[in-house]
């Protein structure tokens, strides 16, 4: 992609998917809601402390609405939510995406979650490496961030394993799913420093 173009984000040609060694990561499609809903149900206890959508079990229709809204947001280039699948057997593993996008600065934040039965295999770290490469190669990223509650040890460990640098801790900056204000860790990779 020629980053010198001053195109509106909606006019940017952005691939719908990318692959890593073990994963296919692609934009949401209508019909993905049922499988995502099963994964949410399986993982509800692990997701509940960190994910607002997991405070109670959503209906399949609600998850399908999320998938279709994600599709529209991807096409509008406002949020780039993607689903993670195993290349070996097609298993739906979880979600990753780029959000809080600043196209002028080419700044992106990535967030992720994994289905409980797939945790502990390095899939999310691999997906973070993949989406980081995707953001650099396809979107001309200057800065990629991972933000998480300082209490979310697993998410912070992913950021560190993926080579992100802790820029700082924002005290009492985010109201998490538990309703409390949490400190937020801000990790980043920056062009000219980490890539």
From TrEMBL:
Highest taxon above the source species: Bacteria
Entry-linked SUPFAM superfamilies: Acyl-CoA N-acyltransferases (Nat)
InterPro entries: Acyl_CoA_acyltransferase, GNAT_dom, Ribosomal_N-acetyltransferase
Pfam families linked: Acetyltransf_3 (PF13302)
Residues of the N-acetyltransferase domain: 23-192
Protein name: GNAT family N-acetyltransferase
Organism: Paenibacillus phytohabitans
């Amino acid at each position: 992609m020629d980053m010198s173009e001053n195109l509106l984000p909606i006019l940017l040609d952005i691939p719908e998917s990318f692959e890593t060694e073990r994963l296919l990561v692609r934009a949401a499609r209508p019909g993905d809601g049922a499988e995502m809903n099963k994964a949410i149900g399986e993982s509800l206890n692990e997701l509940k402390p960190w994910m607002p959508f997991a405070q109670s079990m959503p209906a399949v229709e609600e998850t399908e609405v999320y998938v279709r809204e994600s599709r529209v947001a991807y096409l509008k280039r406002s949020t780039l939510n993607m689903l993670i699948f195993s290349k070996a057997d097609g298993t739906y593993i979880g979600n990753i995406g780029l959000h809080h996008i600043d196209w002028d600065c080419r700044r992106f934040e990535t967030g992720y979650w994994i289905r409980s039965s797939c945790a502990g295999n390095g899939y999310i770290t691999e997906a973070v490496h993949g989406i980081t490469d995707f953001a650099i190669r396809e979107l001309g990223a200057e800065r990629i961030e991972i933000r998480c509650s300082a209490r979310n040890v697993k998410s912070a460990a992913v950021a560190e394993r993926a080579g992100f640098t802790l820029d700082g801790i924002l005290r009492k900056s985010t109201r998490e799913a538990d309703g409390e204000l949490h400190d937020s860790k801000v990790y980043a990779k920056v062009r000219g420093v980490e890539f």
